[in-house]
Design brief:
Elements (H helix, E strand, L loop, with lengths): L1 H5 L2 H4 L7 H31 L3 E2 L3 E3 L5 E3 L2 E5 L2 E8 L6 H21 L4 E8 L8 H15 L4 E4 L14 H16 L13 H8 L4 H9 L1 H6 L1 H4 L4 H11 L4 H16 L4
Parallel strand pairs: 5-6, 6-7
Antiparallel strand pairs: 1-4, 2-3, 4-5
Helix pairs in contact: 7-11, 8-12, 11-12
C-alpha cells in the first residue's frame, strides 16, 4: 500500500502497458520474493544455532552511522563464519559489482571487530539452478584471498553444507529444507490474492500500523480511489475493521482518516 501511495502512476499511469490489477499482482509477487529471502535467512540462523554454533550480532553500525546487515554470522572453534546469503545468482553487471563490493566491505568491518579470530567469508546462493556470475565472483574472491588472506568461498545450494567449508555442518539440514519447501510450494495458490476482503482479519492486523500519512494519501487521491482501492477492498469489510482500530487511537489524525474511509465507502464502493 505504501508503494501505491508513493508512486500511484506506476499502477494507473496512461503510459503503463498493464491495467492496475496486473501491476498490483506484480508488486505483491515481488514483495513475496523479498520476504521469502528474509525468511530463509531466519530459518538458517535458527538451524546454525541448533547445530551448536554461536550466532553473533548481525548488525554493524559504522562511525558514520552507516549500517551493515550480515546475513549469517556465527562462531565455531574460534573461527567466525560470515555468510552473504542470496536466493539466486541472477544479477546484472552493475548489481553484481555492487554486491561483491558490499560483501568485501562487510568482511573488512567484521575483521576489525574480531581481530583475534579467523574470519571465513562465504558468498552463498541458495538456488543452485542459476550461476550467472560464477566466474566473476570466483575471480574477485581470488583477489580477496590474495590481499586479505581470508580463504573466501563461493557456494551454490548444498555446497555450503560441505565439511570442507564449515566444520561440523550437516547435509541433513539441506535435505530437510528441500522437503519442507516442496510441501509449502504445493500449497501455494496459482495467483496471489489481491482481494484483501477475502482475509480481512489478517489484513487488518497488517495494515493497522501503516503510517497515517500513507493512508491519508491513498484516500485523498481520486485516481487511487477510483482505480485501485476498489480492487483491494471490493466490499469494504477490511476498511470497516480498520476504522474500529482507528477509533481506539483517540488522536485527531485517526478521526480524519475515519472520515476519509467513510467517504470512500459511501461514494466509491456503491457506484
Amino acid at each position: 500500500m505504501e508503494s501505491v501511495a508513493n508512486s500511484p502512476n506506476r499502477y494507473i499511469g496512461l503510459f503503463r502497458p498493464t491495467k492496475p490489477t496486473t501491476k498490483l499482482i506484480q508488486n505483491i509477487t515481488q514483495s513475496h520474493e523479498i520476504k521469502f529471502g528474509d525468511a530463509l535467512e531466519e530459518i538458517f540462523t535458527t538451524y546454525f544455532e541448533v547445530l551448536g554454533y554461536q550466532n553473533l550480532t548481525k548488525r554493524i553500525v559504522l562511525e558514520n552511522n552507516e549500517i551493515y546487515h550480515i546475513d549469517q554470522l556465527f562462531l565455531q572453534n574460534n573461527i567466525i563464519y560470515m555468510i552473504e546469503q542470496k536466493v539466486r545468482d541472477d544479477h546484472d553487471s552493475t548489481k553484481k559489482r555492487g554486491q561483491f563490493q558490499n560483501f568485501e566491505n562487510k568482511f573488512f568491518e567484521v575483521s576489525k571487530r574480531y581481530p583475534s579470530n579467523q574470519i571465513m567469508p562465504i558468498m552463498w546462493f541458495v538456488d543452485k539452478s542459476l550461476v550467472k556470475n560464477k566466474n566473476y565472483y570466483l575471480t574477485e574472491m581470488q583477489r580477496m584471498d590474495k590481499h586479505y588472506q581470508c580463504n573466501a568461498s563461493l557456494c551454490y545450494g548444498e555446497q555450503l553444507f560441505d565439511n570442507q567449508i564449515i566444520a561440523g555442518i550437516n547435509i541433513q539440514i539441506w535435505n530437510e529444507l528441500l522437503v519442507h519447501l516442496k510441501l509449502w510450494k504445493d500449497e501455494l495458490p496459482e495467483m496471489p490474492e489481491i482481494n484483501f476482503d477475502n482475509n480481512f482479519e489478517e489484513v487488518i492486523d497488517e495494515i493497522k500500523e501503516i503510517k497515517p500519512s500513507v493512508i491519508r494519501r491513498l484516500f485523498e487521491n481520486e485516481n487511487i480511489k477510483n482505480q485501485i482501492l476498489p480492487i483491494l477492498f471490493p466490499n469494504g469489510e477490511t476498511l470497516s475493521g480498520l476504522k474500529e482500530q482507528y477509533r481506539l487511537k483517540n488522536l485527531p489524525i485517526f478521526d480524519s482518516l475515519i472520515k476519509l474511509i467513510d467517504n470512500f465507502l459511501c461514494n466509491y464502493l456503491t457506484k
